[in-house]
Amino acid sequence: MDDGDRLRQALWSARGLMFIQGLLATATAVVEVVEAVGHARDGSAETSVSWFSVGGSVVVAAGLVVSAVLLFRRAWARVLALVIEAVGVVFAVVTLVGGDVLSGLSRLALAALVILGIVQYELGSGRGTASPPGEPRPGRG
């Protein structure tokens, strides 16, 4: 496996993790809405749902999926992914400080792996060793 193959593999791995993160963000939004509906049906005093959190989860999920789909074809998709992951790191640290160690560490690990994959690809492609799938690799015609 040459350097270009390793770099493309790093980006494929980041892409897979981004799809998983998008799925988890969507699941978070669905769970919050279902909980709010359940509380409303029970007549519980606690019927408020953080619509900011639900909306944020949906926006993050959409951003992750769009950037994951376009990760190989558009440089702006890689930038968008890095921005979303950087915000994810901040929220992971906040989660850790809030006492939810398992959730905070898992968020931090996923974000770090995605950032690492994208940065490795970008640095490698700057040297002319990586090319998106379907494009001829340097030195192989």
From TrEMBL:
It comes from the Bacteria. Keywords: Membrane, Transmembrane, Transmembrane helix. The chain crosses the membrane at residues 12-31, 51-72, 79-98. The keyword Membrane applies. This is Uncharacterized protein. It comes from Actinokineospora spheciospongiae.
